[in-house]
Amino acid sequence: MTLPGYRTYPPPAPPRRSTLARTSQLLGIIGLVGLAACFAGVIPALVGLVLGAVSLVRRDPDRRPALVGVACSAVAVVIGAGTLFWLLGKAAQCGDEARYPDDLSRRGCVEREFPFAEANT
After folding, report:
1. What is the DSSP letter of 100?
2. Burial 33-71 (b: 16+ CB within 10 A, else e)
3. CA angle, corner 119, sides to 118 and 120, nearest 5?
4. Which of 2, 41, 71, 96 has the fewest Cβ atoms within 10 Å of its own Cβ atom?
């Protein structure tokens, strides 16, 4: 019941939340944390980067999580790809037959360059 002369207004709608933006943010953070687990974070970071970009292109109202997700995902992808590129370069140096002609010298290079790798003999 309303008093005469007063209008009733519906309550304001709650703000819309973008699932893509929130998922991008979550995957970006998981990607950064997952880098410590043998580059397991690169895959979620790639997915988070795509979802965040889609959310930003759609101009979803919840932009801040999408921006955080894109930033975290991009940092995780750059760090992961750079580290992987560096490690593969070191492995290629040890596999160079002109520099290390026999198996024993290549094995010594691997043990010297990758002290965390355990040799199985």
Report:
1. S
2. ebbeeebebbbbbbbbbebbbebbeeebebeebbbbbbe
3. 115
4. 2
